[in-house]
């Protein structure tokens, strides 16, 4: 099976602590590497996670709060010092573009690679990236400023043809792709062998949704329905629900409710408030609603 992994580089919130770094993740899907958010210190976390700098082909920014983007210009500069030549694609709210242009001109005027900026409409769910094997969708979230999440989906693959059937029925190589796409096979004696007998089903496509930062959204589960892995911010526990509403964040209970209603496979909590010395209370509350919940932590690598 092709790789589909999530690397946690940082899962803290706005106030820096010695326990957690600012928000950042890397999604590895079918040999492609995408960074989501780039808070201060992301470069050091990238080093610790042993993800090669040169592998990052695109950076997706959820919103323009510093703990999600202060590390961006530093990473762009480092790419230049490492001799990057491949284009870098940046997906972010439109208002970042003029500021980013100014910073690049100020700090990185002689880059030997191009930066392509893709403005993301945070107000609607839409596909922002697509290739032959996957899509990335922007998911509108509700925060104090324009903000979106990102949904990674594999595309369905063709079924696998059975090697024993190829040999038994003497199927030529030229017909294998036709059979994968649904064609039956007719033997030299005129016997029709149905497609279903000749193939094994392919693995179901996998999906990952990143939802940070947002207040509780009763309809969010519809946009991430059936996702295999859901990362949902859980800045506070339920005792601080009023504070969560004030700052447009979510509690662990609310994150678990979204996961349960979405019929997600697994819930990953993150974006913890600096007030917590550990997050076991957040985990316990969430697991009472959605048992298959885990805590994100720097250095964690999750197979989707």
UniProtKB/TrEMBL annotation:
Gene3D superfamilies: Ribonuclease Z/Hydroxyacylglutathione hydrolase-like. InterPro entries: RibonucZ/Hydroxyglut_hydro, RNase_Z/BN. It catalyses: Endonucleolytic cleavage of RNA, removing extra 3' nucleotides from tRNA precursor, generating 3' termini of tRNAs. A 3'-hydroxy group is left at the tRNA terminus and a 5'-phosphoryl group is left at the trailer molecule. Binds 2 Zn(2+) ions. Its EC number is 3.1.26.11. It comes from the Bacteria. Keywords: Endonuclease, Hydrolase, Metal-binding, Nuclease, tRNA processing, Zinc. Zn(2+) 2 binds at residues 67-68, 213, 271. Its cofactor is Zn(2+). The active site is at residue 67. One of its GO terms (molecular function) is zinc ion binding. Pfam families: Anti-Pycsar_Apyc1. Zn(2+) 1 binds at residues 63, 65, 143, 213. Homodimer. Belongs to the RNase Z family. HAMAP family: RNase_Z_BN (MF_01818). Zinc phosphodiesterase, which displays some tRNA 3'-processing endonuclease activity. Probably involved in tRNA maturation, by removing a 3'-trailer from precursor tRNA. This is Ribonuclease Z. It comes from Hallella bergensis DSM 17361.
């Amino acid at each position: 099976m092709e790789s589909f992994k999530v690397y946690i580089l940082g899962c803290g919130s706005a106030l820096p602590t010695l326990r957690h770094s600012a928000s950042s993740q890397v999604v590895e899907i079918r040999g492609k590497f995408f960074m989501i958010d780039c808070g201060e210190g992301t470069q050091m976390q990238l080093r610790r996670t042993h993800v090669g700098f040169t592998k990052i082909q695109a950076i997706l920014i959820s919103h323009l709060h510093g703990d999600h983007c202060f590390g961006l210009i530093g990473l762009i500069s480092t790419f230049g010092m490492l001799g990057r030549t491949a284009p870098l694609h940046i997906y972010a709210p439109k208002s970042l573009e003029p500021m980013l242009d100014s910073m690049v001109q100020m700090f990185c005027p002689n880059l030997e690679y191009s930066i392509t900026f893709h403005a993301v409409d945070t107000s609607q769910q839409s596909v922002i990236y697509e290739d032959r094997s996957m899509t990335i969708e922007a998911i509108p979230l509700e925060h104090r400023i324009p903000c979106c999440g990102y949904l990674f989906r594999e595309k369905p693959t063709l079924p696998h043809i059975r090697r024993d059937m190829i040999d038994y029925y003497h199927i030529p190589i030229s017909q294998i792709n036709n059979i994968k796409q649904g064609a039956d096979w007719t033997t030299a004696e005129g016997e029709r062998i149905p497609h279903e007998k000749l193939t094994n089903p392919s693995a179901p496509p996998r999906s990952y949704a990143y939802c940070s930062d947002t207040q509780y959204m009763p309809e969010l589960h519809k946009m991430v329905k059936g996702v295999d892995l859901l990362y949902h911010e859980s800045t506070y526990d339920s005792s601080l629900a009023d504070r969560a509403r004030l700052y447009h964040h979510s509690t662990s209970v609310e994150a678990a409710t979204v996961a349960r209603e979405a019929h997600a496979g697994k819930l990953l909590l993150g974006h913890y408030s600096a007030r917590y010395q550990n997050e076991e209370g957040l985990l316990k509350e969430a697991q009472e609603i959605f048992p298959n919940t885990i805590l994100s932590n720097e250095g964690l690598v999750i197979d989707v």
